[in-house]
Please model this.
Amino acid sequence: GESVGLHLPTLSVQEGDNSIINCAYSNSASDYFIWYKQESGKGPQFIIDIRSNMDKRQGQRVTVLLNKTVKHLSLQIAATQPGDSAVYFCAVSWGKFQFGAGTQVVVTP
Amino acid sequence: DAMVIQNPRYQVTQFGKPVTLSCSQTLNHNVMYWYQQKSSQAPKLLFHYYDKDFNNEADTPDNFQSRRPNTSFCFLDIRSPGLGDAAMYLCATSRDLAAIQYFGAGTRLSVL
Model:
């Protein structure tokens, strides 16, 4: 079956540094991609999305990069803050969404 | 203001005792989803409603049922909870399939 996975289960980053979270997918028909942030005890929260006709999209302190050739997307968080500590999921759609396994981001002082 | 509201936030039930979790939305979205999430794993889709049309995932156990009496409300019924059903249950809504899903805060279910 199709798979969606993240490259690292845990990412430790120092406050103020940039974070990069990666996600690989297998279905070449995937056309819509979303990053979610889930804080402890809460539901996933939408961060940013990108469609397959784009390769980069920027938000406030976040950037999503999409490489369709290698079926890879990444989320970059600039100047990581303690409030960015959470689990980050990519969700990939080819008509229906599939969530990746999640990366725990731990921000250290 | 919360747009997808789940009640209760925490639910404790006994092994085999039926339990119902509820979800309501103020977004007037067409699609409502129920996910099961264990530990920090990815949310696992159980089923969804597109308007009144129910769509069950192939690997969702028969023990899990759902009702959507109107656009705003959707219920998850677990007919005979087992210890393995202890998890966070997430409700989400979206305007359409393959659109952004908005999640509620979840209901943490414990089975004793």
